Amino acid sequence: xxxRARLVGGLVGYFVLLIVLACVLIAxxxxxxxxxxxxxxxxxxxxxxxxxxxxxxxxxxxxxxxAEGGMRHLAVTLERDxxxxxxxxxAGGVPRWLAxxxxxxxxxxxxQRIRIDGATVVIKPDPASETSEILAESxxxxxxxxxxxxxxxFAAWRTVGVALRPGVxxxxxxxxxxxxxxxxxxxxxxxxxxxxxRTMESIxxxxxxxxxxxxQMGRRLIQVQEAERRALARELHDEIGQTLAALGLAAAYIxxxxxxxxxxxxxxxxxxxxxxxxxxSGQVSGILKRLRPHGLDELGLLEAxxxxxxxxxxxxxxxxxxxxxPTALPALPEAAALSIYRTVxxxxxxxHRHGDATHVDVELAVAAAAAFVExxxxxxxxxxxxxxxxxxSGGVLGMRxxxxxxxxxxxxxxxxxxxxxxxxxxxxxxxxxGRHDPIDVAG
Length: 443
Description:
Layout: H1 3-52, H2 58-68, E1 74-80, E2 83-87, H3 96-99, E3 112-116, E4 119-125, H4 127-163, H5 166-178, H6 191-256, H7 263-291, H8 301-314, E5 320-324, H9 334-353, E6 359-367, E7 372-379, H10 386-391, H11 394-405, E8 409-414, E9 420-427
Parallel strand pairs: 5-6
Antiparallel strand pairs: 1-2, 1-4, 3-4, 6-7, 7-9, 8-9
Helix pairs in contact: 1-2, 1-4, 5-6, 6-7, 8-9, 9-11
């Protein structure tokens, strides 16, 4: 049942019950009016018959009937010598406010006088009786209308309250989303609330996955950071440190034997110092290249990608790389350029280490009137399922996060050769454009 049917059904049910009650009250009032009208007519007939009777007890009979009363809308009085002998009990006068509304002719109606046995029967229309009955009937109708208003208000309040009662459970579910303690919501009778509950459970599940991915990303970043620090420390100590120690020995030899050493020895020390400086320079360049893509700031994204692809193509035992790069690119925000470079780097690494690919296609193009840059990388390796991608650690998570920061979209799908294909679509005006200076990636 949906909410509209519940509300309309409840209100209609209450109103039908109220109408039935009103019909019962009207029927009772009608029954009472009919009985009173029939009784009054019977009494009037009895009075007429008593007046037409020629018996000796006629006058006593008439007096008795007049004293009993019950003749509606008529005032009947028995007078003798101008003084009333018997009359119906007064029903009360017409209220002053109502008398001001009624025409004067109502109160000036002619009376009928009938002489019997030395007495006079006076019959006159009685407006007070009629107005009292009308006022009583109006009071009943007004009371019924007030009852209808109160019952209608109670019906609306009750129906809406019952229909919206599941809102309490939904509120608890929302609170659970905030404090990371999701609750299983019950099944609701109303379809609208049940759909909202199922949607909230789906959102809670997605939030839990996102929070878990965020925690994994945090742990992975810390692990990568510590591993990078250990690698840097090892290179600085084992390679650069040893080279600098050898340079120090050569410089110390020159310092101690500058005046007495042979020319060839001095030349050998100079050659060792030059080669050591070149070695240190290469080692430092390698470290800097891992920390920051070489040439990305100075030469542009295209040159940096060409260097990266040449490096991978020159490695032994890696897949054959076929690249299609444009001759020029629009100016990209730094986050977008770095996302493209790192995505290519990570995709080539995954294709070599995990996919056992023999062929990798890399294509970078400008689409939709230079509003988007699209990168597509496809290999012929073993491929990867969505579940494996969702469980992957730093590499895939890093690519997704960089694409999100740059305001783009990263999609993984099955390649045409059975391997893995990824598509990275980035806007030229990315989300990070206001935070970073654009890089001219045209080269």
